[in-house]
Specification:
Helix content: 40-55%
Protein name: DUF3253 domain-containing protein
Oligomer: single chain
Order of helices and strands: HEHHEEE
Number of strands: 4
Largest sheet: 4 strands, antiparallel
Number of helices: 3
Shape: globular
Strand order of the largest sheet: 1-4-2-3
Strand content: 5-15%
Length: about 90
């Protein structure tokens, strides 16, 4: 992993936590919200950050900071397929 990738990973983790901090305690965000917050260009280049954003969310799950949900219910990040949401750990 390059230094740039590590910096992007940290920025994505921070973006997830910052976005959740600005919303209500039970609010959720999409990984795309973090990807858009971190992406510095125009257009849809943020899409390349979607999988890194999902990985950042999984690291935050491991750290006990957030949980990943599908259909409003917490799911094991290792088994989550398709659209996910991220919320603060309750």
């Amino acid at each position: 992993m390059t230094d740039t990738e590590r910096q992007t990973d940290r920025r994505l983790e921070r973006a997830i936590l910052d976005l959740l901090e600005r919303r209500g305690p039970s609010a959720t965000i999409c990984p795309s919200d973090a990807a858009r917050a971190v992406y510095e260009g125009d257009g849809d280049g943020w899409r390349a950050l979607m999988e890194p954003a999902r990985r950042a969310a999984r690291r935050l799950v491991t750290a006990g900071e957030v949980e990943i949900t599908q259909s409003g219910r917490p799911v094991d990040p290792a088994h989550a397929r398709g659209p996910i949401r991220i919320r603060r750990t309750r």
